[in-house]
Amino acid sequence: MNLLPALRTALRALRRNKLRSALAMLGIVIAVAAVVATVSLGQGARAKVASQMASLGSNLLMVVPGSMSTRGAATGAGATQTLVLDDARAIERELSGVVAAVAPVNRASAQVIYGDANWFTQVMGSTAAYLQVRGWSLSLGDPFGREEEAAGAKVCILGQTVREKLFGDANPVGEGIRVKHVPCKVVAVLAPKGQGSQGQDQDDIILMPWSTLVRRIQGSQADTVGTLMIEAGSSSLVADAQRQVTSLLRQRHRLGDQAEPDFQIRNLAEIQSSANEQTATLSLLLGSVALISLLVGAIGIANVMLVSVTERTREIGIRMAVGARGRDVLVQFLTEAVVLAALGGLVGLALGAGVSWVMAVKANWPTLLSPGVMVGTVLLAGLAGVVAGFYPALRASRLDPIDALRYE
Amino acid sequence: MASSSPAGAAVGFPVVRALAIEKVYRMGDVSVHALNGVTLDLAPGEFAAIMGASGSGKSTFMNVVGCLDRPTRGTYLLDGEDVGKLSRDALARARGRAIGFVFQGFNLLPRTSALENVELPMLYQGVQTKERHARAAEALARVGLGDRLDHTPAQLSGGQQQRVAVARALVNRPKLLLADEPTGNLDSQTSIEMMNIFQALNDEGLTVLLVTHEPDIAEHARRIVTFKDGHILSDVPVAKRRLARAFAEASP
After folding, report:
1. N or C: which end of chain A has fewer CB within 10 A?
2. How many C-beta neighbours within 10 Å does residue B106 have?
3. What pTM does this model have?
């Protein structure tokens, strides 16, 4: 029997028992929906991590002050003030072979005011190198340069959110705002970046020269730096740069060979791979649950097919009497099982895609549905149908035509 | 075996040649001899009726002749081909190609149109869709159901259902029409109409083997073979053959 008539026969048989077919499919539907939703979530999370890493800047190393132990009680990372502006200058000067740019970063929170609008936001004090290191770009205006940094010029660059809160749609470049009590001229606007990894608004930010923030707004004469952001010359130089920065800082901080470092260097590749690992573990867990439900769905189909074969013994006898070979009967029932499973797979795919869409829109979770996954899951469901349908179909094909014709 | 060929039938190699067929069923420790060495030839164009009480072995013989079952011993040539030793699948092929079945219980697929029921045997011979439709419609027209193509068995009377079954049996142009108690579920008027169809087909040269326990139905054949206890008891030509056409036309 050819495939097309077999398909038509299968569809007719399934239509004849709509409720039973639907219930038999249900297991596969749920399993495939679970697989699709899970995988799309996993892939979405992975893609988001990757894009966040890219938005953090490529080949990035972050140096933060280390923890300090006072009589056995450790403080957290960053609690000490061991990094200074000179460390940044030294790295820039001495490690130019492996390091492309160094940006010292200090942060503060401040009220910003323009006219009768005001907003409370994060202020980052750094150098123009910060834009390069983070891979950020400007949508309006020009960045501040070395002279402004040296002079502590009262200039700033606005994030999109701050710009909207203070200026609406108007062009802020050249306007003056007040940051805390200090008047600042807006020289540029950052390109929008959207949400960060924890859902924070990456555009709710103001960037200004390091000296402006520390000297004028915080009124501090200290050279202490919160974070050093370093861009390695290339991705192959990241490990080299990390090693050389470590040894330079140990030397500058006069640490003995055995001493604990008073700083930490974080490599973004490591952060990324650990994030990916978490995603992979979660996907594996959910994926195995989904596979188990696929197995349960397959058992459901096998059960329904066995009932169907028994019920249609006489039909099988008739078919054999008019010339159907065992093979033909096998193909017929196998086709039915596969159609059942594949239909379940398609419905499950639609359901899973719907669930992942709802998660994306309502819960704001990142989801990503690749065509490969869609085709793969439906094929997997079809395979489950083959496995589930084989034994019932084999039983049907081995019926004795005389007994089958006499079956009541 | 010219002696067993009735006058008027074309003589050629027998459509059915059964030689010393034995069939033994094992039921637990007991062996039941359903057929005890049956030898029978059926020439092309013959119309034979098999009679016998239940348990006489006539159904078992039908199953062997119909390639639904294989003999325990003996040789069975269907249209010259030794099918006694064929595999299940090869037997199914031979069955689909050379034999058309008509059963007592009609055995149509329920909830399936007459047309599709008649198409069924061609499905397993790899006939293309278009030709399938055409041949099925033609076969149904031939049994007088040209206007009932889309009716399901439930929408047809018993006689009409049996005519669909006859159309299905004919559609692969078989060598042998095998009818197992075809009138068992029909009233006498419809039974005679059915015999009319069989006689018309036989007149066109189709070989017919009819199993029945009703003597007046058997008398529509040219030859009556009587079974008893797994043997052929008698094998005689019908002296005064009933012609269904005359009767069918005479009745209201």
Report:
1. C
2. 23
3. 0.71
